[in-house]
Batch of 2 targets.
Target 1
Amino acid sequence: EVQLVESGGGLVQPGGSLRLSCAASGFTFSSYEMNWVRQAPGKGLEWVSYISSSGTTIYYADSLKGRFTISRDNAKKSLYMQMNSLRAEDTAVYYCASGWVRGRFDYWGQGTLVTVSS
Amino acid sequence: DIQMTQSPSTLSASVGDRVTITCRASQSISSWLAWYQQKPGKAPKLLIYKASSLDSGVPSRFSGSGSGTEFTLTISRLQPDDFATYYCQQYNSPSYTFGQGTKVEIK
């Protein structure tokens, strides 16, 4: 059974940093493209970042302005998101999502809540 | 970035109804479109990919059509489990944008 389990969310002050992790199991992690997608409270879905199966191709949403960094460790079957200079508007549930095809989200984790507030 | 526009934003329907949701892209995305279902407090679930291909395990009452800039999701006979929010999403090119969502409510 495919499982994606996010962790690392929590309450952080504006300007602070947080590192999210996503542990994968039940599929060949190294063969899948990975993404982060977020959802602000009561709002719709927003794609955040993509990383190819090998880690060589990376994309970010323009709205992030260089504050977030995606990475993966295929040996550990894990995906990461380093989030710096956090703002109130980054408050959201962050989902990791895997896909067999670039940009498609076949499997989702349960999400981890990031709250940016003083 | 490619903008995705869904309509309607909210839809009230009864069990057994045929329901159609429309999604328009601001430029051609060929057939690189997916549909997701999300229930409150849960992660989204992939229903349809490449505009009309049903994901594994998804009931056949769901269907998708379209190409280029106009797409539709149809639920042939609405079931109690189908009351949820539905999102379209383009994966033609990054940013991989979503529509704003369509909430299907009980009439």
Target 2
Amino acid sequence: KQEVTQIPAALSVPEGENLVLNCSFTDSAIYNLQWFRQDPGKGLTSLLLIQSSQREQTSGRLNASLDKSSGRSTLYIAASQPGDSATYLCAPEQWGGNKLTFGTGTQLKVEL
Amino acid sequence: DTGVSQDPRHKITKRGQNVTFRCDPISEHNRLYWYRQTLGQGPEFLTYFQNEAQLEKSRLLSDRFSAERPKGSFSTLEIQRTEQGDSAMYLCASSATGRTSGRNTGELFFGEGSRLTVL
């Protein structure tokens, strides 16, 4: 059974800092991995999707990397802004599973 | 709005009552998922459909839960005889699959969720 761990569980930083959010998973036989953002009381917004054959994906100030063999993915946020405050979730999809398994997320607060 | 929509957004009910949630996926997506999320936790998989076929159900989906997708478009999730432990956010997501691979070709897109409170 796939297990996903996200570190740190919570993070509070001043505006402008570059951030690294970590995701680890126990079963490396994944098809892809997706990063989401969730605002309080809201649904999930997809940020980035990395296919298992890719090493990284970039979208604006976000960069996600994937090291499948070691069971790790990293989300890098450059020049953080207060609007980035949210919970960030990673979710790998198994080859045989057709569904995503989520971690508990990293709760990010970016202060002025 | 062409995203995933869910209704109702909030539902408060008394223990023992039945509730039904509806999800309308992105129109060209053939795969539809239901997840449940409790406070401070990540979403947990409940079930998914490919077109109208329900292909997998989690052990979390007890006998009191039933999901349908009758014409391969919208889906409903019904909870019978609700219990306080059913209080959660119920999330719906949709995706498209490749014709030959049967795998998701891209991202899962989630709706805003239906929050259930059982008193």
